[in-house]
Amino acid sequence: MVTRTEEEEVNRLENQVENGGGGVWEYLCLVHKLKLRRSDMVLKHGLSILNDSKKRSALGPEEWTLYEQVAVAAMDCQSIDVAKDCIKVLQRKFPGSKRVGRLEAMLLEARGLWSEAENAFSSLLEENPFDQVVHKRRVAMAKAQGNTSAAIDWLNKYLDLFMADHEAWRELAEIYVSLQMYKQAAFCYEELILSQPTVPLYHLAYADVLYTLGGLENLQTAKKYYASTIALTGGKSTRALFGICLCTSAIGQLTKGRNKEDKESPELQSLSAMALEKDYKQRAPGKLSVLSSTLRSLKI
Amino acid sequence: MAEDLVLDTAIRDWVLIPLSVVMVLIGVLRYFVSKLMKGSSQIPDPKIVKEGQVIIRARNLRAGANYIPAKSFRARKAYYSNEENGLLHVPKGQAANPQAQMFSDPNMAMDMMKKNLSMIIPQTLTFAWVNFFFSGFVAAKIPFPLTQRFRAMLQNGIDLSTVDVSYVSSRSWYFLNLFGLRGLFSLILGEENATDDTQRMMQMSGFGMDPSKTLGAEKDGLDIVQHEWVLPKFEQRAESVLRKLVK
């Protein structure tokens, strides 16, 4: 996760770099450290360092990591030629290196030569079956080809071994949601909540999935998770506020006629409706009428 | 008590300095030889990698149990710790002791032997060399007096009780070099050089850690976790948050 201070620092450095204020290397290091995806910037400024032999040699051994970083950024920007040049330099420096081999395979992937890339990745995995990056590249490749079921297969195989990798769980959850396999997605989101219990994003996504699944029990649980999202974000999540309203109305419809079950927090719905109205008044007064009519239609 | 022994400068030139230089050179050589013998970085056992990951995930479950619904928690608990094929369950017979594991895996034993060989052979050779050529030399004098207790340390190989303790015999000089050059090596060869024997000893003692034991401990920990869903509390908290917001 990137904290706010880190993000501010990156943005400040990016501004400075864009306006020619120096600090390019610090910016690139930070992007590398935080694993940000700002490929266009990395490509532009990384190349400016690499093309300047004086600046390049001043980096010492860091020069090679910069080559790697720029190569990956170039592939991301589809500047295949630049990537090829970078990889060629690295190849000359480290012949037979697996890390360079990975870059080569990624180059094949970037060029869309799927079967060649697949072969390259498989042979890399044969040498080292624990290369997490290669495993993930295979998933990405399956996704890029639109082959979601293969992506799920690869991800499941990967998670069977590296089951504590929450990023992979998140990816799997999103794929499942896109395929409308909500039960599986719910499992993945539970796993994410377990690994990072205080991230409201996962609570929200889990609640969404539960709400979509439907059924009284799921709706009640979903409402609780929307509530926890509100508690964790300090009431700033509009989606969670709407979620509370929708869940309450859906629960009301399901339990209509039967004696009402014990309600732990009867005020939650009216409070979130009020919070929504206040928020809309402040930020989008033009849409207030739409909101109030929507809320009225939800009222039981 | 004999007055000051005068040491020949030839001793300095042909014993003291060569001995130190040889020790340093052998240390460097050992570093490169062990680097060569280490070969390609061996691939860890998939079972061990997986066990580590299982433990992390089970620990997450234990820590965050109250954040997921009771049904999901029960399902996971069964998945980890059921008696038939739970991830954390270690069948009784299979709890292999590390000793047996070590012998069953020839690679591991081979590795240890290589390491030990690269440590022991040069040491025996240099010791024999020093013993043969320089035994009985008084090689140096330290510039301050010492008590009798230091005799065993500084005058190894000289069995004279009348020599002042501040004289250092050549064999003792060898030992001083053997143990005292680590700082110099880390300067020449970088911080994590292979000649660091103490670290290796630590590794060896930590070697016998049994992964199945940690699995069992984690299973016991999971068994006693009481699931108490915190989400209902969150509802009240959300209410109070919203109340503050609306006000």
TrEMBL record, chain A:
Domain of life: Eukaryota
TM region positions: none
Membrane topology: Peripheral membrane protein
Domain EMC2 TPR-like: 100-209
Main location: endoplasmic reticulum
Protein location: Endoplasmic reticulum membrane
Coiled-coil ranges (or none): none
Biological function: Part of the endoplasmic reticulum membrane protein complex (EMC) that enables the energy-independent insertion into endoplasmic reticulum membranes of newly synthesized membrane proteins.
GO annotation, cellular component aspect: EMC complex
Oligomer status and interactors: Component of the ER membrane protein complex (EMC).
Signal peptide (UniProt feature, chain positions): none
InterPro entries with a match to the protein in the record: EMC2-like, TPR-like_helical_dom_sf, TPR_EMC2
Protein's name according to its UniProt entry: ER membrane protein complex subunit 2
Keywords in alphabetical order: Endoplasmic reticulum, Membrane, Repeat, TPR repeat
Family: Belongs to the EMC2 family.
TrEMBL record, chain B:
One Gene Ontology cellular component annotation held by this UniProt entry: EMC complex
Taxonomy, superkingdom: Eukaryota
Originating organism: Solanum bulbocastanum
Chief localisation class: membrane
PANTHER family: ER MEMBRANE PROTEIN COMPLEX SUBUNIT 3
Subcellular location as annotated: Membrane
One Pfam family cited in the UniProt record for this chain: EMC3_TMCO1
Keyword Membrane: yes
Upper classification of the organism: Eukaryota, Viridiplantae, Streptophyta, Embryophyta, Tracheophyta
Protein name: ER membrane protein complex subunit 3
Membrane topology, from the record: Multi-pass membrane protein
SMART domains: DUF106 (SM01415)
